[in-house]
């Protein structure tokens, strides 16, 4: 008999698991509280400008291709993706810039302008980073791993050593580079997962390798086209999708989930429940047994939420010739910046600011001669009861004046369209724990960089997908989380059918 799976939330992880399980003949229902699928991969339009309000950089697109192949489809029949070059333009406080490109001879030349000695280390560094990617692909990206023992069962001692597990990312970077600017540049990649380079394990250094050597990509028409593609596939697979429908509770029979209850009291029965809402908010919202939730909350203490963000969507009546599609405006002191965000829990006085302008690569995203600026500044996760209503305008001023100071002439006066997204919006709209952008932090001491396991420790048939769960955040890893959780369900069902458990 076909098993019924109910997935709470139609974010990327939920959709990925649904595609895979529907392809394997499960009867799948996605229940999504919002009015569209995609969760944090979202879009907003106004005055002729189109903005991706979430991800702007796509890496490892072959993971999406694999997902579509598992359902006997070709991703290229649904979307077209293109490589972005140059990859990233970075601006330093002293007015200098470094352009990052996948063209390594050019990249070496760009680094030589800052430090010849550091530039000569680039290949050694990328080799070090490539090993981390290679061994993650053999282990962490294949199945649920929650400890060093699990990792040891999949990697040789030599491979484990190459993962540099005892160092932080900053310590790894400093083995190769001496110049402050080049250290700041390569350290900053950890923030693509919302983690501090001073705490994240060194194996996050695979991110510069993934971007510089395996390329970064953009989905033509905007990143939301990816959600439309997955949504079309889900309809073709006859997955039942309930939008504008909020789950209130997981219905239990002892330690088994037997369905979910909606806000209106309706119950959807299920053999298996998957939550795309992160484990910490999910347990507290959906499980009505305080003994169970306090037990699990203790287990989850070692997985704090990542940074949140203040996002400005700006439609401007000019084109910034000095900017690229992806730009980073660094802080003067990364030590102080990370201390304020990660230790003091306050927004940095001088934050690093990301500015994405998809119109640079895709003219459909802004009216002719104008540009769509997606301005993201990372801020600490929300504290209980914290509100950005009163402080968003002051921080907006800090952000915009820094950008004007660093070369975006007449930015403020040329804004034609503006929309602000606060950490409270991210929390409210997607249920994100403390308004977290990237799930839970990778912290060498707190959690070794491992994410929350895909299977619940308190209910036998409750599973998780999404950026807080293994293997982590970002489009490729969250897609993998859906696949890894689906594989786990398939394996367990196979064992049960054979009478092994
Ligand atoms: C501003 C920003 C920039 C980013 N930049 C990048 C980038 O450049 N590259 C990259 O790869 N990644 C990036 N990311 C990260 C990436 O977007 C996320 O890792 C990924 O989309 C998260 O997917 P998820 O499966 O965890 O689900 P989420 O997106 O968190 O979705 C969860 C879903 O569950 C639904 N839900 C919650 N509670 C309930 C309930 N009670 N009932 C029903 N439904 C519910 C929510 O409405 C939501 O749709 C960025 C994210 C943000 C926010």
UniProtKB/TrEMBL annotation:
Its cofactor is FAD. InterPro entries: Amino_oxidase (IPR002937), Carotenoid/retinoid_OxRdtase (IPR014105), FAD/NAD-bd_sf (IPR036188). It catalyses: all-trans-4,4'-diaponeurosporene + 2 AH2 + 2 O2 = 4,4'-diaponeurosporenal + 2 A + 3 H2O. Pathway: Carotenoid biosynthesis; staphyloxanthin biosynthesis; staphyloxanthin from farnesyl diphosphate: step 3/5. Residues 12-490 form the Amine oxidase domain. The keyword Isomerase does not apply. It holds the Pfam family Amino_oxidase. Transmembrane segments: none annotated. This is 4,4'-diaponeurosporene oxygenase.
């Amino acid at each position: 008999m076909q098993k019924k799976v109910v997935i709470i939330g139609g974010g990327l992880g939920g959709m990925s698991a649904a595609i895979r399980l529907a392809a394997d003949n499960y009867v799948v229902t996605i229940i999504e509280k919002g009015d569209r699928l995609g969760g944090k991969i979202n879009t907003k339009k106004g005055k002729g400008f189109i903005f991706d309000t979430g991800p702007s950089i796509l890496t490892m697109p072959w993971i999406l291709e694999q997902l579509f192949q598992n359902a006997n489809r070709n991703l290229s029949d649904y979307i077209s993706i293109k490589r972005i070059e140059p990859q990233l333009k970075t601006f330093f406080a002293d007015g200098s810039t470094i352009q990052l490109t996948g063209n390594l001879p050019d990249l070496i030349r760009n680094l030589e302008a800052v430090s010849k000695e550091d530039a000569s280390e680039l290949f050694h560094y990328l080799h070090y980073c490539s090993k981390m990617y290679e061994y993650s692909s053999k282990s962490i990206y294949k199945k649920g791993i929650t400890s060093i023992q699990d990792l040891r069962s999949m990697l040789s001692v030599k491979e484990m050593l190459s993962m540099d597990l005892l160092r932080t990312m900053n310590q790894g970077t400093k083995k190769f580079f001496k110049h402050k600017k080049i250290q700041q540049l390569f350290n900053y990649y950890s923030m693509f997962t919302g983690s501090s380079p001073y705490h994240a394990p060194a194996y996050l250094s695979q991110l510069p390798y993934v971007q510089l050597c395996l390329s970064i990509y953009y989905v033509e028409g905007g990143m939301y086209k990816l959600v439309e593609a997955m949504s079309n596939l889900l309809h073709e697979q006859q997955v039942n999708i309930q939008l504008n429908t909020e789950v209130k509770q997981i219905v239990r029979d002892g330690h088994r989930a037997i369905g979910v209850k909606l806000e209106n009291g309706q119950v959807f029965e299920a053999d298996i429940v998957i939550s795309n809402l992160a484990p910490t908010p999910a347990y507290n919202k959906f499980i009505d047994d305080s003994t169970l939730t306090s037990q699990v909350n203790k287990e989850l203490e070692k997985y704090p939420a990542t940074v949140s963000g203040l996002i400005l969507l700006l439609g401007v009546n000019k084109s910034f010739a000095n900017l690229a599609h992806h730009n980073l405006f660094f802080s003067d002191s990364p030590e102080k910046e990370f201390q304020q965000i990660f230790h003091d829990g306050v927004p940095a006085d001088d934050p690093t600011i990301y500015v994405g302008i998809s119109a640079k690569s895709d003219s459909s995203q802004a009216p002719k001669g104008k540009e769509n600026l997606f301005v993201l500044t990372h801020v600490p996760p929300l504290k209980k009861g914290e509100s950005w209503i009163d402080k968003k305008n002051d921080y907006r001023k800090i952000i915009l004046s820094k950008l004007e100071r660093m070369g975006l002439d007449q930015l403020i006066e040329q804004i034609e369209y503006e929309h602000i997204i606060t950490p409270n919006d991210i929390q409210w709209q997607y249920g994100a724990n403390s308004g977290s952008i990237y799930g839970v932090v990778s912290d060498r001491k707190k959690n070794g960089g491992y994410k929350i396991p895909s299977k619940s420790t308190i209910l036998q048939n409750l599973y998780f997908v999404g950026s807080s769960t293994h293997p982590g955040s970002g489009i490729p890893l969250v897609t993998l989380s859906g696949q890894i959780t689906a594989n786990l369900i398939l394996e367990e069902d196979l064992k049960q059918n054979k009478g092994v458990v």
